[in-house]
């Protein structure tokens, strides 16, 4: 056998382009070059930006499924869902008077902020009032500086002392100008509390004219550079701005980068070629936004009628996007997708901007000077060490760590948390992430400036990157003053043999951060009361709205009077609250209302009292020890909570005689909830699902039954993987909500079984015997949903019973194929990451579910969740045992989706086969893993069955197994036999997803009906099934690039394919003569040979006696040869 054929058998066995403005003047953004340069040269910068992008992507993923809700007690500046960002403008001038040159006037700064807000909020009558969206993000000049002094939010500094600044301005990292960090060192406020904007004289010696107009950095950037740089002639709409750039376009564009947006033309090779249609997010081949068209950067005046050469559509929306390089006169919009990215950045890596109080005037509370200020002694390290997040109750501050931040950060002015004495709070500190660290937390409870007194060391944890626990505040604290909280960290490798030396310890590599704590005095005797006297906003016009003449606080019993309508738009605390008949209290999104007294009461009557809770709002019950708190609803309508936080030291009771509903989260901080309500329902609809969001071991729900709803969106009638949503009941409860059949007690006992569960010991489905059978907690059920003649129109069902809050033991074993069909046992979102960490026996670190929309099985990896009522499959690797799940350790709190799962998230090659109507489909998955084969490996996963025969079935046949998931070694070529079968003849579509994950290593092709299809060029194709042949084999080939590129050369010579057991050879080059043909079976034995062949015609080799299988055909000319695989069947 020649060397080529032997080798073949061996392989089987193993912003820089200019933008033309109205006057044809170039505007440029330096984001692209600076971003790539720092990502390449600065590991700390790269790590921070990557971590931030990962956080943004995670939040985006949850938003896409309507998951994201503010966490408990969030102190966001949210007014009608508007997020406010504190801004500081550093005017870096060259010694000129205010209003001259770079030392721009206050009026010009104000015009920039106003114009920026107009564009971000679509203010009617302004240039922002176009076809884009209201991002609901606003920018406010800071009212206090980092030292708690009053401020205008503007700092003026002379930059002439920095080398080259007076003559060339600031460098943008490429050519001339003063060093960027040296300029920013003149004035910089903490990037966790302020959006820093540096207004400069010029950029890279452009004389404040053409060229680079500005640049900004992504979330996660190093603190020394993070923020925006804009030259003064492009900042605002008045004053020193150039006439061709006087619409504040540059500022709007750069803020987009600051909040995580790429250019919309990302991946256009500097204007040379179209970005790929498939958005390669994070690869430089797409802007990570789904509703912006790929295009080449614009470079002309608003060519609205022109064609987008990348899509064939018009360029109308492309050139109007702020993140393009089009003229300022046509840029007027952000898209819905861009809004989602920017808000995700604010809910994620830039979250501390939302809890910053820098937009407020300084408070009058005193803070004792610290007795010492720790300083890190080695900030030159690149080991990603330091404090990156501190979360305590509603305080949530994210920062870059010691390298990018500084060795000591004083946040006592901008980050203030209000706590209570004798109360337990959850604490979370994140460090690293690359190295384990030791952490100490101190609180100066007596306000003497040090942390040396008893109980002031409140938390200690060693050798970790994520430090969680609780702190219980003492009773003898100083009330109504700022008290210092210090968080200290140090690299564990340094402290392994010694302790952090107290609160004054100077870290070598770690960090110290100070925050302010204020304790509210809850022991004050309540005042006589305060009633509303008209309509209004709670904390506005106190003298006219309230009978007491002041804004009510935690000492006051409040009454919303009959006929009055009052809105709460920022956090409020009261003693008792009573809403009279026909009185209305509105709670805005993101706002928390705390009840300290013994009751929250809605009076009855013709209208009844009303408490309208917006999505994302919170009612917190936080009374004194020894006192039960009561929530009383005497009105006819249910009292509907968005989020309810139970933080009373004793029980909270839903009083009898009323109905209550929960649409989002129920947070248990202390003792149980006593449910004496007539009805208490966890609502589930197209927007959200009520659920338990936090739990402690002392909590629970006692009393009457609770009703749990489960919403499923519209889809074709199909099987759905479901479970009971954490209540004790039977199948009759479900039978009353959806159409059932197939067993005793159902609507149609003689019909096909519409509810079945899986017995993995026998590898088959089991039909219940009677609707009186228990709807078992933790067992997965396949349920056929059909409520409208072959459709399921979006609807919910509900089950009622005692809520399961106990630890639940789910039996699992590796019998049969190892599949276990389970279900979420709680009315909460299971955190699969914690489950996967606890059980190494889960194969592939993933779970599977049946997606009724794509009618295929899909998987999710570790960092995901499992909603209430979701059935899921895991493959168990060895033996039998239990998965022990509990609400304290295995749930997530930041979720509220109404959807059962609808998409996969794995990086994989997915081949889908579906019928013409797309009502039936199946899929197989290929994943890369070194040292695996195309045969059966431990990591591979067999198919999962459905209760009924699939109308479309696709699997990989190897080693006697029918596989759904096959892992292959990316260093080798592979050939995988696919088995396809259908129940009806006709045309079926084949579609390949995830090719970008494989084309770096492979050429991808599919051999079907004797034809070889290039799957890189044709990711969608079709196959036909005849009446007498409803099944067939296909071959999926993954050829290493170096091999398939040679094959491409050979394709010029001849084509080889098969028809049943006939091999057809068709020369493709009229000048190439064939003089040898050989056919070999899969073990290398020659079964056919011809030599001395001549001629230009086609050749048909009939091998009717050969067994079905894979064969190699070798053809040779005078100077070349070609080897091809065919299937005889």
Please explain how this structure is put together.
By secondary structure, this protein is mainly beta. The protein is built from 15 helices and 75 strands. The strands form 16 sheets. Strands 58, 59, 60, 61, 62, 63, 64, 65, 66, 67 and 68 form an 11-stranded mixed β-sheet that branches. Helix 4 links the parallel strand 4 and strand 5. Helix 3 packs across helix 9. The longest helix is centred in the N-terminal third of the chain and has 22 residues. It is globular and about 105 Å long. The two termini are 26 Å apart.
How would the blueprint of this fold be written?
Elements: H1 3-13, E1 19-20, E2 26-29, H2 31-41, H3 43-64, E3 78-79, E4 82-93, H4 106-121, E5 137-141, E6 154-158, H5 165-168, H6 180-184, E7 195-200, E8 211-216, E9 228-231, H7 249-258, H8 316-319, H9 336-347, H10 352-355, E10 387-392, E11 395-398, E12 408-410, E13 416-420, E14 424-431, E15 437-443, E16 457-464, E17 466-472, E18 482-491, H11 492-495, E19 511-520, E20 530-531, E21 536-537, H12 542-545, E22 558-560, E23 565-568, E24 572-574, E25 577-579, E26 584-587, E27 592-595, E28 599-602, E29 610-613, E30 618-621, E31 629-633, E32 639-641, E33 643-646, E34 652-654, E35 659-662, E36 665-668, E37 673-675, E38 679-682, E39 691-694, E40 701-703, E41 706-712, E42 715-716, E43 718-722, H13 731-735, E44 755-759, E45 764-766, E46 781-785, E47 791-792, E48 795-801, E49 808-813, E50 819-823, E51 829-831, H14 832-838, E52 847-851, E53 856-860, E54 865-866, E55 871-875, E56 880-885, E57 891-892, E58 909-915, E59 921-928, E60 941-942, E61 952-958, E62 961-968, E63 974-982, E64 986-993, E65 1002-1008, E66 1011-1014, ...
Parallel strand pairs: 2-8, 4-5, 4-6, 4-7, 7-9, 12-19, 13-19, 20-22, 21-23, 22-25, 23-26, 24-27, 25-28, 26-29, 27-30, 28-31, 30-33, 31-34, 32-35, 33-36, 34-37, 35-38, 36-39, 37-40, 38-41, 59-62
Antiparallel strand pairs: 1-2, 3-4, 8-9, 10-11, 10-14, 14-17, 15-16, 15-18, 18-19, 41-48, 42-47, 43-46, 44-45, 44-46, 49-56, 50-55, 51-54, 51-57, 52-53, 58-59, 58-64, 60-62, 61-62, 61-63, 63-68, 64-67, 65-66, 65-68, 69-70, 70-73, 71-72, 71-74, 74-75
Helix pairs in contact: 2-3, 3-9
